[in-house]
Design the sequence.
Protein backbone atom coordinates (compact mmCIF):
# COMPACT_ATOMS: atom_id res chain seq x y z
CA UNK A 1 0.00 0.00 0.00
CA UNK A 2 1.21 3.52 -0.82
CA UNK A 3 2.69 5.46 2.10
CA UNK A 4 4.25 8.92 2.35
CA UNK A 5 6.71 7.62 4.91
CA UNK A 6 9.84 5.56 4.50
CA UNK A 7 8.84 1.91 4.82
CA UNK A 8 12.48 0.97 5.50
CA UNK A 9 12.38 2.53 8.98
CA UNK A 10 8.93 1.10 9.61
CA UNK A 11 10.00 -2.43 8.63
CA UNK A 12 13.20 -2.17 10.67
CA UNK A 13 11.21 -1.13 13.75
CA UNK A 14 8.58 -3.85 13.16
CA UNK A 15 11.30 -6.50 12.81
CA UNK A 16 12.83 -5.41 16.11
CA UNK A 17 9.42 -5.34 17.74
CA UNK A 18 8.50 -8.79 16.45
CA UNK A 19 11.72 -10.35 17.72
CA UNK A 20 10.63 -9.35 21.22
CA UNK A 21 6.87 -9.65 20.82
CA UNK A 22 6.19 -12.52 18.43
CA UNK A 23 2.89 -12.11 16.49
CA UNK A 24 0.07 -14.33 17.67
CA UNK A 25 1.31 -14.42 21.26
CA UNK A 26 0.06 -13.13 24.57
CA UNK A 27 2.62 -11.35 26.79
CA UNK A 28 2.41 -10.16 30.37
CA UNK A 29 4.57 -7.28 31.64
CA UNK A 30 4.85 -6.55 35.33
CA UNK A 31 3.99 -2.89 35.89
CA UNK A 32 2.86 -2.45 39.51
CA UNK A 33 1.40 1.07 39.53
CA UNK A 34 -1.54 2.31 37.49
CA UNK A 35 0.25 5.62 36.69
CA UNK A 36 3.23 3.62 35.42
CA UNK A 37 0.97 1.52 33.20
CA UNK A 38 -0.58 4.66 31.74
CA UNK A 39 2.89 6.09 31.12
CA UNK A 40 4.12 2.87 29.48
CA UNK A 41 1.13 2.87 27.13
CA UNK A 42 1.77 6.50 26.28
CA UNK A 43 5.47 5.78 25.56
CA UNK A 44 4.59 2.83 23.32
CA UNK A 45 2.02 4.97 21.51
CA UNK A 46 4.68 7.65 21.00
CA UNK A 47 7.12 5.01 19.71
CA UNK A 48 4.60 3.70 17.18
CA UNK A 49 3.63 7.27 16.19
CA UNK A 50 7.30 8.17 15.59
CA UNK A 51 7.39 5.30 13.07
CA UNK A 52 3.98 6.26 11.61
CA UNK A 53 2.60 2.93 12.79
CA UNK A 54 0.12 4.18 15.39
CA UNK A 55 -2.77 2.88 13.26
CA UNK A 56 -1.54 -0.65 14.00
CA UNK A 57 -1.55 -0.16 17.76
CA UNK A 58 -4.73 -0.76 19.78
CA UNK A 59 -5.17 0.22 23.41
CA UNK A 60 -7.44 -1.21 26.08
CA UNK A 61 -7.73 1.06 29.13
CA UNK A 62 -9.37 0.85 32.52
CA UNK A 63 -11.30 4.08 31.86
CA UNK A 64 -15.00 3.73 32.63
CA UNK A 65 -16.32 5.90 29.83
CA UNK A 66 -14.87 4.27 26.73
CA UNK A 67 -18.21 3.81 24.99
CA UNK A 68 -20.26 6.34 23.08
CA UNK A 69 -23.58 6.63 24.95
CA UNK A 70 -25.66 7.20 21.82
CA UNK A 71 -24.56 3.99 20.11
CA UNK A 72 -25.54 0.41 20.89
CA UNK A 73 -22.87 -1.92 22.27
CA UNK A 74 -22.65 -3.59 18.85
CA UNK A 75 -22.11 -0.25 17.10
CA UNK A 76 -19.51 0.68 19.70
CA UNK A 77 -17.61 -2.51 18.86
CA UNK A 78 -17.88 -1.94 15.12
CA UNK A 79 -16.91 1.75 15.43
CA UNK A 80 -13.77 1.39 13.34
CA UNK A 81 -14.64 -1.72 11.36
CA UNK A 82 -12.02 -2.96 8.95
CA UNK A 83 -13.74 -4.82 6.09
CA UNK A 84 -10.98 -7.39 5.52
CA UNK A 85 -10.88 -8.29 9.24
CA UNK A 86 -14.63 -8.81 9.25
CA UNK A 87 -14.24 -11.42 6.50
CA UNK A 88 -11.47 -13.26 8.35
CA UNK A 89 -13.04 -12.94 11.78
CA UNK A 90 -16.82 -12.87 11.38
CA UNK A 91 -18.99 -10.97 13.81
CA UNK A 92 -20.82 -14.21 14.67
CA UNK A 93 -17.59 -15.50 16.29
CA UNK A 94 -18.09 -13.14 19.21
CA UNK A 95 -21.86 -13.19 19.21
CA UNK A 96 -22.16 -15.05 22.48
CA UNK A 97 -22.23 -12.26 25.04
CA UNK A 98 -25.47 -11.25 26.70
CA UNK A 99 -24.29 -7.67 27.25
CA UNK A 100 -24.75 -6.82 23.56
CA UNK A 101 -28.38 -6.19 24.45
CA UNK A 102 -27.52 -3.77 27.29
CA UNK A 103 -27.17 0.02 27.12
CA UNK A 104 -23.61 1.26 26.80
CA UNK A 105 -23.78 2.99 30.20
CA UNK A 106 -24.85 -0.18 32.06
CA UNK A 107 -21.82 -2.34 31.25
CA UNK A 108 -19.59 -3.84 33.96
CA UNK A 109 -15.78 -3.51 34.01
CA UNK A 110 -15.23 -6.87 32.29
CA UNK A 111 -17.92 -6.13 29.67
CA UNK A 112 -16.22 -2.82 28.86
CA UNK A 113 -12.98 -4.79 28.54
CA UNK A 114 -14.59 -7.13 25.96
CA UNK A 115 -16.02 -4.18 24.02
CA UNK A 116 -12.57 -2.59 23.75
CA UNK A 117 -10.99 -5.93 22.87
CA UNK A 118 -13.43 -6.70 20.03
CA UNK A 119 -13.28 -3.08 18.85
CA UNK A 120 -9.52 -3.38 18.41
CA UNK A 121 -9.80 -6.81 16.78
CA UNK A 122 -12.39 -5.58 14.26
CA UNK A 123 -10.31 -2.46 13.59
CA UNK A 124 -7.53 -4.79 12.43
CA UNK A 125 -4.93 -3.80 15.05
CA UNK A 126 -1.72 -5.87 15.02
CA UNK A 127 -0.61 -5.03 18.53
CA UNK A 128 -2.98 -4.52 21.44
CA UNK A 129 -1.74 -3.01 24.69
CA UNK A 130 -3.91 -3.98 27.63
CA UNK A 131 -3.90 -1.95 30.82
CA UNK A 132 -5.70 -4.13 33.37
CA UNK A 133 -5.00 -5.74 36.73
CA UNK A 134 -8.02 -8.08 36.56
CA UNK A 135 -8.02 -7.85 40.38
CA UNK A 136 -11.61 -6.71 40.53
CA UNK A 137 -12.83 -9.44 38.15
CA UNK A 138 -14.54 -12.51 39.65
CA UNK A 139 -12.29 -15.62 39.17
CA UNK A 140 -14.64 -17.17 36.59
CA UNK A 141 -14.70 -13.95 34.54
CA UNK A 142 -10.93 -13.64 34.79
CA UNK A 143 -10.49 -17.20 33.49
CA UNK A 144 -12.93 -16.53 30.69
CA UNK A 145 -11.04 -13.36 29.71
CA UNK A 146 -7.70 -15.20 29.59
CA UNK A 147 -9.27 -18.03 27.62
CA UNK A 148 -10.69 -15.57 25.12
CA UNK A 149 -7.33 -13.77 24.78
CA UNK A 150 -5.55 -17.08 24.17
CA UNK A 151 -8.21 -18.09 21.65
CA UNK A 152 -7.83 -14.78 19.75
CA UNK A 153 -4.03 -14.93 19.64
CA UNK A 154 -4.17 -18.53 18.39
CA UNK A 155 -6.62 -17.71 15.60
CA UNK A 156 -5.08 -14.43 14.45
CA UNK A 157 -1.60 -12.83 14.26
CA UNK A 158 -2.49 -10.24 16.92
CA UNK A 159 0.11 -9.57 19.62
CA UNK A 160 -1.40 -8.88 23.03
CA UNK A 161 0.75 -7.10 25.59
CA UNK A 162 -0.86 -7.23 28.99
CA UNK A 163 0.39 -4.64 31.51
CA UNK A 164 -0.58 -5.88 34.94
CA UNK A 165 0.27 -5.82 38.62
CA UNK A 166 -1.45 -9.14 39.24
CA UNK A 167 1.34 -11.38 40.60
CA UNK A 168 -0.76 -14.58 40.40
CA UNK A 169 -1.28 -13.99 36.73
CA UNK A 170 2.41 -13.25 36.14
CA UNK A 171 3.53 -16.40 37.95
CA UNK A 172 0.95 -18.62 36.28
CA UNK A 173 1.99 -17.38 32.82
CA UNK A 174 5.72 -17.42 33.63
CA UNK A 175 6.87 -18.31 30.11
CA UNK A 176 5.21 -15.26 28.62
CA UNK A 177 5.89 -12.89 31.52
CA UNK A 178 8.39 -10.03 31.30
CA UNK A 179 9.74 -8.14 34.29
CA UNK A 180 11.41 -5.41 32.24
CA UNK A 181 9.70 -3.16 29.72
CA UNK A 182 11.18 -3.69 26.24
CA UNK A 183 11.99 -0.64 24.05
CA UNK A 184 11.60 1.77 26.95
CA UNK A 185 14.75 2.88 28.73
CA UNK A 186 13.04 4.42 31.76
CA UNK A 187 9.69 3.68 33.36
CA UNK B 1 -23.51 3.36 5.91
CA UNK B 2 -22.44 3.30 9.56
CA UNK B 3 -21.32 6.93 9.50
CA UNK B 4 -24.83 8.15 8.59
CA UNK B 5 -26.28 6.02 11.42
CA UNK B 6 -23.75 7.55 13.85
CA UNK B 7 -24.49 11.06 12.57
CA UNK B 8 -28.23 10.76 13.26
CA UNK B 9 -27.65 9.04 16.64
CA UNK B 10 -25.35 11.90 17.62
CA UNK B 11 -27.78 14.56 16.37
CA UNK B 12 -30.51 12.94 18.47
CA UNK B 13 -28.26 12.70 21.54
CA UNK B 14 -27.01 16.30 21.25
CA UNK B 15 -30.52 17.58 20.53
CA UNK B 16 -30.05 20.95 22.28
CA UNK B 17 -27.09 21.83 20.07
CA UNK B 18 -28.90 20.50 16.97
CA UNK B 19 -31.98 22.60 17.75
CA UNK B 20 -29.95 25.76 18.38
CA UNK B 21 -27.87 25.23 15.24
CA UNK B 22 -31.02 24.60 13.17
CA UNK B 23 -32.71 27.76 14.50
CA UNK B 24 -29.60 29.78 13.52
CA UNK B 25 -29.68 28.11 10.08
CA UNK B 26 -33.38 29.00 9.63
CA UNK B 27 -32.69 32.63 10.59
CA UNK B 28 -29.80 32.74 8.12
CA UNK B 29 -31.92 31.19 5.40
CA UNK B 30 -34.89 33.54 5.83
CA UNK B 31 -32.78 36.70 6.14
CA UNK B 32 -30.45 35.77 3.26
CA UNK B 33 -33.32 34.72 1.00
CA UNK B 34 -35.03 38.04 1.77
CA UNK B 35 -31.80 39.89 0.88
CA UNK B 36 -31.49 37.97 -2.39
CA UNK B 37 -35.15 38.55 -3.30
CA UNK B 38 -34.77 42.26 -2.43
CA UNK B 39 -31.72 42.33 -4.69
CA UNK B 40 -33.78 40.76 -7.49
CA UNK B 41 -36.62 43.29 -6.97
CA UNK B 42 -34.21 46.25 -6.92
CA UNK B 43 -32.29 44.84 -9.89
CA UNK B 44 -35.54 44.52 -11.83
CA UNK B 45 -36.57 48.10 -10.90
CA UNK B 46 -33.16 49.41 -12.01
CA UNK B 47 -33.32 47.57 -15.31
CA UNK B 48 -36.91 48.79 -15.89
CA UNK B 49 -35.80 52.36 -15.22
CA UNK B 50 -32.85 52.03 -17.63
CA UNK B 51 -35.07 50.46 -20.31
CA UNK B 52 -37.57 53.34 -20.02
CA UNK B 53 -34.80 55.96 -20.20
CA UNK B 54 -33.58 54.16 -23.31
CA UNK B 55 -37.06 54.28 -24.88
CA UNK B 56 -37.33 58.06 -24.30
CA UNK B 57 -33.85 58.87 -25.50
CA UNK B 58 -31.64 56.19 -26.97
CA UNK B 59 -28.51 58.27 -26.59
CA UNK B 60 -29.30 58.75 -22.88
CA UNK B 61 -28.55 62.44 -23.08
CA UNK B 62 -31.51 63.26 -20.85
CA UNK B 63 -29.59 61.92 -17.88
CA UNK B 64 -27.18 64.83 -18.14
CA UNK B 65 -30.03 67.33 -18.49
CA UNK B 66 -32.27 66.03 -15.67
CA UNK B 67 -30.70 65.80 -12.20
CA UNK B 68 -33.85 64.02 -10.93
CA UNK B 69 -33.16 61.10 -13.25
CA UNK B 70 -29.50 60.98 -12.23
CA UNK B 71 -30.52 60.93 -8.57
CA UNK B 72 -32.99 58.07 -9.11
CA UNK B 73 -30.40 56.10 -11.06
CA UNK B 74 -27.85 56.49 -8.27
CA UNK B 75 -30.40 55.55 -5.60
CA UNK B 76 -31.43 52.40 -7.49
CA UNK B 77 -27.81 51.38 -8.13
CA UNK B 78 -26.96 52.00 -4.46
CA UNK B 79 -29.92 49.84 -3.36
CA UNK B 80 -28.81 46.90 -5.55
CA UNK B 81 -25.30 47.26 -4.14
CA UNK B 82 -26.68 47.53 -0.56
CA UNK B 83 -28.64 44.28 -0.88
CA UNK B 84 -25.48 42.55 -2.13
CA UNK B 85 -23.58 43.94 0.88
CA UNK B 86 -26.33 42.81 3.26
CA UNK B 87 -26.15 39.27 1.81
CA UNK B 88 -22.33 39.23 2.14
CA UNK B 89 -22.62 40.46 5.72
CA UNK B 90 -25.20 37.76 6.56
CA UNK B 91 -23.09 35.07 4.86
CA UNK B 92 -19.86 35.91 6.70
CA UNK B 93 -21.77 36.55 9.92
CA UNK B 94 -23.23 33.04 9.63
CA UNK B 95 -19.71 31.69 8.95
CA UNK B 96 -18.51 33.34 12.18
CA UNK B 97 -21.50 31.98 14.09
CA UNK B 98 -20.89 28.40 12.84
CA UNK B 99 -17.24 28.71 13.82
CA UNK B 100 -18.11 29.87 17.36
CA UNK B 101 -20.80 27.17 17.77
CA UNK B 102 -18.46 24.46 16.40
CA UNK B 103 -15.60 25.46 18.70
CA UNK B 104 -17.90 25.54 21.75
CA UNK B 105 -19.43 22.14 21.01
CA UNK B 106 -16.03 20.63 20.14
CA UNK B 107 -14.70 21.71 23.55
CA UNK B 108 -17.83 20.32 25.21
CA UNK B 109 -17.50 17.00 23.34
CA UNK B 110 -13.75 16.60 23.85
CA UNK B 111 -14.14 13.30 25.68
CA UNK B 112 -16.35 11.88 22.93
CA UNK B 113 -13.67 12.64 20.33
CA UNK B 114 -11.06 11.01 22.58
CA UNK B 115 -13.19 7.82 22.52
CA UNK B 116 -13.22 7.90 18.72
CA UNK B 117 -9.43 8.30 18.74
CA UNK B 118 -9.03 5.48 21.25
CA UNK B 119 -11.11 3.30 18.93
CA UNK B 120 -8.55 4.06 16.20
CA UNK B 121 -10.56 6.54 14.14
CA UNK B 122 -8.30 9.06 12.45
CA UNK B 123 -8.70 12.84 12.58
CA UNK B 124 -10.08 13.04 9.03
CA UNK B 125 -12.84 10.49 9.77
CA UNK B 126 -13.89 12.12 13.04
CA UNK B 127 -13.91 15.59 11.47
CA UNK B 128 -15.87 14.31 8.47
CA UNK B 129 -18.52 12.88 10.80
CA UNK B 130 -18.75 16.16 12.76
CA UNK B 131 -19.01 18.16 9.51
CA UNK B 132 -21.77 15.79 8.31
CA UNK B 133 -23.68 16.33 11.57
CA UNK B 134 -23.69 20.10 11.02
CA UNK B 135 -24.45 19.71 7.32
CA UNK B 136 -27.49 17.49 8.00
CA UNK B 137 -28.73 19.93 10.69
CA UNK B 138 -28.43 22.74 8.14
CA UNK B 139 -30.16 20.81 5.36
CA UNK B 140 -33.01 19.65 7.63
CA UNK B 141 -33.50 23.25 8.85
CA UNK B 142 -33.33 24.45 5.23
CA UNK B 143 -35.97 21.93 4.15
CA UNK B 144 -38.34 22.82 7.01
CA UNK B 145 -37.87 26.59 6.45
CA UNK B 146 -38.53 26.20 2.70
CA UNK B 147 -41.74 24.25 3.36
CA UNK B 148 -42.94 26.93 5.80
CA UNK B 149 -42.04 29.73 3.35
CA UNK B 150 -43.90 27.89 0.56
CA UNK B 151 -47.00 27.77 2.75
CA UNK B 152 -46.92 31.53 3.40
CA UNK B 153 -45.28 32.57 0.13
CA UNK B 154 -47.87 35.13 -1.05
CA UNK B 155 -47.84 36.88 2.34
CA UNK B 156 -44.03 36.70 2.53
CA UNK B 157 -43.44 38.04 -1.00
CA UNK B 158 -46.05 40.82 -0.63
CA UNK B 159 -44.36 41.84 2.60
CA UNK B 160 -40.98 41.95 0.88
CA UNK B 161 -42.33 44.08 -2.00
CA UNK B 162 -43.86 46.53 0.47
CA UNK B 163 -40.66 46.60 2.52
CA UNK B 164 -38.68 47.38 -0.64
CA UNK B 165 -41.13 50.14 -1.54
CA UNK B 166 -40.81 51.61 1.97
CA UNK B 167 -37.00 51.33 1.83
CA UNK B 168 -36.95 53.07 -1.57
CA UNK B 169 -39.15 55.86 -0.13
CA UNK B 170 -36.76 56.27 2.80
CA UNK B 171 -33.77 56.52 0.46
CA UNK B 172 -35.29 59.37 -1.56
CA UNK B 173 -34.01 62.89 -0.85
CA UNK B 174 -36.61 65.42 0.38
CA UNK B 175 -37.10 66.96 -3.10
CA UNK B 176 -37.99 63.60 -4.64
CA UNK B 177 -40.16 62.67 -1.65
CA UNK B 178 -42.25 65.80 -2.27
CA UNK B 179 -42.45 64.83 -5.92
CA UNK B 180 -43.62 61.32 -4.97
CA UNK B 181 -46.35 62.66 -2.70
CA UNK B 182 -47.67 65.60 -4.86
CA UNK B 183 -49.00 64.76 -8.30
CA UNK B 184 -50.04 68.29 -9.31
CA UNK B 185 -46.85 70.11 -8.54
CA UNK B 186 -45.12 72.60 -10.80
CA UNK B 187 -42.11 70.27 -11.01
CA UNK B 188 -44.28 67.55 -12.56
CA UNK B 189 -45.43 69.94 -15.29
CA UNK B 190 -41.80 70.75 -15.95
CA UNK B 191 -40.73 67.09 -15.78
CA UNK B 192 -43.52 65.89 -18.08
CA UNK B 193 -42.03 68.03 -20.86
CA UNK B 194 -39.74 65.05 -21.22
CA UNK B 195 -42.63 63.11 -22.79
CA UNK B 196 -43.50 65.78 -25.40
CA UNK B 197 -43.96 64.22 -28.85
CA UNK B 198 -43.40 60.79 -27.25
CA UNK B 199 -45.81 57.87 -27.14
CA UNK B 200 -44.97 55.69 -24.14
CA UNK B 201 -46.82 53.19 -21.94
CA UNK B 202 -45.59 54.98 -18.81
CA UNK B 203 -45.76 58.48 -17.38
CA UNK B 204 -43.25 60.49 -15.34
CA UNK B 205 -44.44 59.01 -12.02
CA UNK B 206 -44.00 55.45 -13.25
CA UNK B 207 -40.62 56.27 -14.77
CA UNK B 208 -39.28 57.57 -11.46
CA UNK B 209 -40.98 55.46 -8.82
CA UNK B 210 -42.21 52.22 -10.41
CA UNK B 211 -40.70 49.08 -8.79
CA UNK B 212 -42.05 46.74 -11.48
CA UNK B 213 -44.94 44.32 -11.29
CA UNK B 214 -44.52 41.63 -8.60
CA UNK B 215 -48.15 40.59 -8.28
CA UNK B 216 -48.88 36.84 -8.41
CA UNK B 217 -45.25 35.82 -7.97
CA UNK B 218 -44.26 32.70 -6.06
CA UNK B 219 -41.09 31.35 -4.47
CA UNK B 220 -40.59 29.22 -7.59
CA UNK B 221 -39.70 32.49 -9.38
CA UNK B 222 -36.74 32.80 -7.00
CA UNK B 223 -35.54 29.18 -7.29
CA UNK B 224 -32.07 30.41 -8.30
CA UNK B 225 -31.77 32.28 -5.00
CA UNK B 226 -32.82 29.11 -3.14
CA UNK B 227 -30.23 27.01 -4.98
CA UNK B 228 -27.54 29.64 -4.37
CA UNK B 229 -28.33 29.54 -0.66
CA UNK B 230 -28.38 25.71 -0.62
CA UNK B 231 -24.97 25.17 -2.14
CA UNK B 232 -23.24 28.20 -0.64
CA UNK B 233 -24.69 27.53 2.83
CA UNK B 234 -23.92 23.78 2.67
CA UNK B 235 -20.35 24.37 1.48
CA UNK B 236 -19.83 26.97 4.20
CA UNK B 237 -21.23 24.76 6.98
CA UNK B 238 -19.24 21.72 5.84
CA UNK B 239 -15.93 23.55 5.39
CA UNK B 240 -16.04 25.55 8.63
CA UNK B 241 -17.09 22.48 10.65
CA UNK B 242 -14.56 20.16 9.00
CA UNK B 243 -11.63 22.55 9.39
CA UNK B 244 -12.41 23.48 13.00
CA UNK B 245 -12.92 19.79 13.94
CA UNK B 246 -9.69 18.78 12.15
CA UNK B 247 -7.61 21.33 14.05
CA UNK B 248 -9.27 20.44 17.37
CA UNK B 249 -8.88 16.67 16.88
CA UNK B 250 -5.27 17.08 15.81
CA UNK B 251 -4.72 19.07 19.04
CA UNK B 252 -6.42 16.30 21.11
CA UNK B 253 -4.21 13.62 19.53
CA UNK B 254 -1.08 15.71 20.30
CA UNK B 255 -2.31 16.18 23.84
CA UNK B 256 -2.91 12.43 24.30
CA UNK B 257 0.61 11.79 23.10
CA UNK B 258 2.40 14.41 25.17
CA UNK B 259 0.44 14.74 28.41
CA UNK B 260 1.94 12.86 31.32
Sequence:
Amino acid sequence: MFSFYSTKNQNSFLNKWQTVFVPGQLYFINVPLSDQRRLVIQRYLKLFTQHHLHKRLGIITTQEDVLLPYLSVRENILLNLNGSVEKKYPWQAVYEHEFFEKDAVDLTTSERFYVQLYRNIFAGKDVILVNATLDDYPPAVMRAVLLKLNQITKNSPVTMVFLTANQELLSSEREQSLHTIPFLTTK
Amino acid sequence: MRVIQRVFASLHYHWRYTTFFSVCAVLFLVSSLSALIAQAIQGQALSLFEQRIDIIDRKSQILTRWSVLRQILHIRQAMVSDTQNIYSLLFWGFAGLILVLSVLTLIQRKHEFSIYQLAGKNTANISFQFALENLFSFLIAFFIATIILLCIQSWYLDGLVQLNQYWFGQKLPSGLKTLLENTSDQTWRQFNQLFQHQFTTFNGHLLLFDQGNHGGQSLADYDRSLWTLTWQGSALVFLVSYLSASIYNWWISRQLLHSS
About this structure: Chain A has seven helices and five strands. Chain A has one domain: 24-165+172-178.
